[in-house]
Design brief:
With about 190 residues, the chain is α+β, with helices and mostly antiparallel strands. The chain contains six helices and ten strands, in the order βββββαβαββααβαβα. The protein has a five-stranded mixed β-barrel with strand order 4-5-6-9-10. The chain has a three-stranded mixed sheet with strand order 1-3-2. The longest helix is centred in the C-terminal third of the chain and has 12 residues. It is elongated and about 80 Å long. The two termini are about 35 Å apart.
Length: about 190
């Protein structure tokens, strides 16, 4: 259960049971959502409400904040988890986990919006019509800050680092956002250890 009766006192002493366990204080087994073909179970909760317990997931909706675009991507593997390395080893999807997602949708978006093809070690211009070139120039003019080299390297390697912001065991989805800037640098440093 999740109630205080089953815990010890601040001093370490046992708490004498003064009532039985209550239905409202129950806890359930953790979902331990793994990477794999989608398998979601519906769980009935208090008040007839439901939760979607994801047991396996492999696709999710990930957003690229600075570009204002989101796309459905395949999750490749779990790279880092602040809680435990065990969750990384077993490819367990939880909120806050850093995962690698396929970069193809974001590469296509970048090429279409800016007219630049991202390849290993270089960014080359794409051939296009006059209208396309004008649209690309307009898009390039609105850029406040160009993406960091680390982000280009990820686009070129077909894998982007993302952080899971949804709770797969509660809502049955694995959604998140692409890591950028200081946050990306922070997690790159953590993963290097």
């Amino acid at each position: 259960t999740r109630d205080g009766c089953s815990k010890r006192r601040l001093t370490g002493g046992r708490v004498k049971a003064w009532h039985k366990k209550r239905k409202g204080a129950l806890g359930r087994q953790p979902a331990n959502t793994k990477l794999g073909s989608s398998l979601v179970r519906v769980v009935r909760c208090r008040g007839g409400n439901t939760k979607r317990r994801a047991l396996r997931l492999d696709h999710g909706n990930f957003s690229w904040g600075s570009e204002g675009v989101a796309s459905k991507c395949r999750v490749v593997n779990v790279l880092y988890n602040a809680t435990s390395n065990e969750l990384v080893r077993t490819n367990t999807l939880v909120k806050g986990a850093v995962v690698a997602v396929e970069a193809a949708p974001f590469r296509e978006f970048y090429e279409k919006k800016y007219g630049k093809k991202v390849e290993k070690g270089s960014v080359t211009d794409v051939e296009g019509t006059e209208e396309q070139k004008a649209a690309w120039a307009k898009a390039a003019a609105t850029v406040v800050e160009a993406p960091a080299q680390a982000l280009f390297d990820q686009l070129a390697s077909h894998r982007m680092f993302a952080r899971v912001s949804s709770r797969p065991g509660q809502c049955g989805r694995v959604d998140g956002y692409i890591l950028e800037g200081e946050e990306l640098a922070f997690y790159m440093k953590k993963m290097a250890k």
